[in-house]
Amino acid sequence: MAVIDLSDIEIIKSVLKGNTADYTVLVDRYKNKSFTMLKRMLKNEFDAEEVLMDCFMKAYNNLSSFKYESKFSTWFYRIVYNTALTKLSGVKRKIESQMQSIDDLDYLQSKYNADEYSKKELSEIMNKIINELPAKNAAVITMFYLEEMSSEEISQVLDISVANVKVILHRSRNLLKDIIQKRNLLKEIL
Amino acid sequence: MISISDELLNNFIDGGLNPEKVKLINEAIEKSPEVKSRYLALVKSNDVLLKLKSESVSPDFTKTVLQKIQRRKELAKQQKRFLFVVLSLLGIIALGIVGFIFYQIINVSAPQSNQIVTTYSEDVGNYFSNLFGKKNISVFGSVLSFIMLVSAYFFYDYQRNSKKNFMH
């Protein structure tokens, strides 16, 4: 069986046996999705790639402490999320992220309901909105829709309750819904 | 009829409601254009989110990760080797000191045993005796401290450079 077909757990066991090169399969498997999450959290491509590199190194160095109780993805995304928060806390964005709390998405709603965005493609606006979401919301959206993780898994990564994960998800979805309604896009789908 | 909140509609979309509530919401969507409008907008936003694509890292990202891992492994090996050399050196010095102390103890407690000691070991003893004698001990201590300080500086510098290489 080719290494690429192995499960995450099998690859981890192989890496721990000394096959370092097999770790690249895990890197390839998670790099783009976790990069997307980091880019949305950090709002900067260069920082996102640097932090991601750091995350993969941390994961490699602590691979022996992985207890196989959860999925590798859950364990890895916890590293990614916490490293991103550490990065955020070290820069000015700390103030920004503190201000843009879970209950403060109104500024985005009013911004993207403005006329200047009325002629743009919906998907383009959605991307812009998601890129401007507060770090925690961006992380939840990425893990739920891109990584297809369940609310339970996301709650483990973020160390918050499942109910809170759902609140974040629904608030982000509501934000998009309001923009769709305001722009009368429903006529297209009704 | 209960009011259908966005929260309820979101849970409906996620499939997190019991059959009774599902029936209630289906009826509300059929009867109320306002609820239907909100529901469709939520479905649309859910669809848009589902279609979001991931972004790509630079093409040589995986290669760089592997190189960094290998560099770190090499660094760990070098550190081990360096520590081994330093510890061996310290071990030899410690052995020398212990040997000298034993020699002195034997000399003081049983001078007659000197007769048994061969000429060769006597020479070695004299050498150590001179080396650690009152005259040389302070010089020897200073030299040893200097060597240790220099080693510590080089070790620190080496570690710092290695870390820098590792980071970039």
Could you please describe the fold and organization of this structure?
The complex is a heterodimer of chains A (190) and B (168). Chain A has 190 residues and is mainly alpha-helical. In chain A, 71% of the residues lie in helices and 0% in strands. Chain A is built from eleven helices and no strands. Chain A has helices spanning 8-16, 23-42, 45-61, 72-89, 93-99, 106-112, 122-132, 135-146, 151-158, 162-182, 186-189. Chain A is elongated and about 55 Å long. Chain B contains six helices and no strands. In chain B, 81% of the residues lie in helices and 0% in strands. Chain B has helices at 6-14, 19-31, 33-50, 61-109, 119-131, 134-167. Chain B is an all-alpha fold. Chain B is rod-shaped and about 115 Å long. The A-B interface holds A 20-21, 23-24, 27-28, 31-33, 35-36, 39, 49, 52-53, 56-57, 60-61, 122-123, 126-127, 130, 141, 145-146, 166, 169-170, 172-174, 176-178, 180-181, 185-186, 189-190 and B 6-7, 10-11, 14, 16, 37-38, 40-42, 44-46, 48-52, 54-58, 61-62, 64-66, 68-70, 72-73.
Order of helices and strands of chain B: HHHHHH
How many strand units of chain A?
0
Mean pLDDT of chain B: 81
Could you describe the largest sheet of chain A, including whether it forms a barrel? none
Low-confidence stretches of chain B: none
Uncertain ranges of chain A: none
Distance between the termini of chain B: 63 Å
State the helicity of chain A in percent bands: over 70%
Portion of residues in beta strands of chain B equals: under 5%
The overall pLDDT average of chain A reads 82
Total of DSSP H or I helical runs spanning 4+ residues of chain B: 6
| Estimated helix fraction of chain B | over 70%
